[in-house]
Amino acid sequence: MKKGAAEKCERIWIEQLFRRSPVSVNPVNIIVVSGMAGIGKTTMVQKIMYDWARGTQYQRFAFVFLFKFRELNLLDNENETQMSLTKLIERHYKYLSNDPLKDILKNPETLLFIFDGLDEYKHKLDFTQSQLCSNPDVEVPVHILVTSLVSRTLLKGCSVLITSRPTALEAMDMERVDQFVEILGFFPEQRLMYCKKFFGDTALAAQAFQYVKKNTILYSMCFIPSYCWMICSVLKSHFMTPETAKSEALQVGQWLCEAQNKELIRDTIGKDLKMNFSSTTLSAVDCAVLAAVISCCGELKELNLSDTPLTTECIKRLEPGLSCCSTVW
Questions:
Q1: Tens of pLDDT along 84-139?
Q2: Share of residues in the chain with pLDDT > 90 (%)
Q3: Which of 47, 106, 174, 276 lies at 20 to 30 Å from 128 by C-alpha?
């Protein structure tokens, strides 16, 4: 990771996110974490929550509230475009009833609000002063709650962490941010470390890592943790039983479905453009993912589904992908 302006970059660890700089007298309350897709922003958030819950880190916070921008989008579909902060918290944390929550909000300096995935939010953050609110019980559009927390007009003294892809940062007023952090991904030594942890078997890990290192394109992609996981999953299938390999392939397929990267999908499937899921139990969701991956690829020479039990719903979900297959067994 790196923080600060380009001329004042330094490498820090997750545990140092909220630590005050030695040259600064101001506390670090507002943090923006940037990183490209698959680099580990959400995983970092999960690690923060885990360490806080275990009591090993971030114990300055009595409560940590996590919200995903993707889920906040759904409020529009439920005709709840306006909401107070207290209601938003109660909605996501149902065990916090009204009276205890009011007491909790009286000590904002002990609170951390995490908003994950700004790039997925369909509303633009508006930092216009007239749009901000200061009362946690007043109902306003949800995006105003976010900007008010960042602007310190709402629950002044609380801490806010926002994650985002770089493309969405133009929506942020960076002058209000105490610390900007960019996740850079795996350094070369960390790629080898990941392989060792992924495979468990040292010899197998070394073999896989050497294979990847010889391929410049694959090795360069491994700085992104999710790509590294996907590449290791594909390589691992060469050393596993067919049943386990197919299970791993379905996991990779789910990630590819989210990535929607045609070139990456074709490279993962292989030059022969063949997929084998014979004698495999596929759910309707698995079939939908498989169809999406095949459709994004554009073509598949062979799809082997022999001895695979498929329900009517499974076949329906597979249909969009089947039209792209030259041969289906």
A1: 999 999 999 988 877 889 999 999 999 999 999 999 998 888 888 778 999 999 99
A2: 38
A3: 106
DSSP for 208-251, written as a single string: HHHHHHHSHHHHHHTTSHHHHHHHHHHHHGGGS-HHHHHHHHHH
Q: For residue 299, give every residue at least 6 positions away whose Cβ sits within 8 Å of its Cβ, in sequence order, or none.
A: 273, 324, 325, 326
Q: What is the pLDDT of residues 13-26, one digit of tens each?
A: 888 898 876 666 67
Percent of the chain residues topping a pLDDT of 70: 84
Superfamily classification of domain 2-182: P-loop containing nucleotide triphosphate hydrolases (3.40.50.300)
- What separation in angstroms does the CA of 202 have from each of 137, 189, 198, 205? 56, 15, 10, 5
Which residues on adjacent β-strands are paired with residue 276? 304
Residue 270: band (very low, low, confident or very high) from pLDDT cuts 50, 70, 90: low
CA distances from 93 to 47, 78, 88, 90, 147 (A): 19, 18, 9, 5, 21
Starting at the edge strand found earlier in the chain, the sheet holding 159-164 runs: 2-3, 179-182, 30-34, 159-164, 111-116, 63-68
